[in-house]
Amino acid sequence: MSQPQPPSPYLTARIIHAALFAGQIAFLAIVIFIIRDNLSFQTEEGSKLVVMICYTLAIPLLFLGPFIEKSYHKGKNDAEINPYQRQVGQLVKYALWEGPCLFAIVVMLMTSSLVTLPVALIVLALFILNTPKSEHY
Helical H runs in the chain? Predict the structure, then answer.
């Protein structure tokens, strides 16, 4: 049985680019929606909206990152995964985690509230726990 081939560097670059681009587009759309409806972050209604958006984005992305990372080397044990596949999977996961963390920090800044602090702290803890290890490369 033949081994599955790793994605081409071009495909990998496209996936990483798409993940980062999608985060920017989502953030821009949310800001435009808020500005269009004249919502103020200093009001209770505006604050609740951005907090709800923050948690709605964060929860799925925190689970999606590791799922996509594992799809780059499914069916292989740790020793069989080539460094390129491991690196690409990690980069995609980190990109998906970065968005909710930065959004949570921006929401805290805009609302002067710490209600999204758990999102930021959870993502930062995940980054620390998932630091690349030299034995994998």
Answer: 9-36, 44-71, 83-111, 117-129
pLDDT in tens, 77-111: 777 777 777 788 888 888 888 888 888 888 887 77
The percentage of residues in the chain with a pLDDT greater than 90, rounded to a whole number, is: 1
- Answer yes or no: are the C-beta atoms of 54 and 107 closer than 8 Å: yes
Cα-based angle 12, 18, 22 (whole degrees, multiple of 5): 155
Looking at the whole model, is its pTM more than 0.85? no
C-alpha span between 56 and 50 (Å, rounded)? 10
Q: Are 137 and 86 in contact (CB under 8 A)?
A: yes
CA 106 to chain centre: 15
Taking phi over 0 as left and psi of -120 to 50 as alpha, with beta for the rest, 131 belongs to: beta
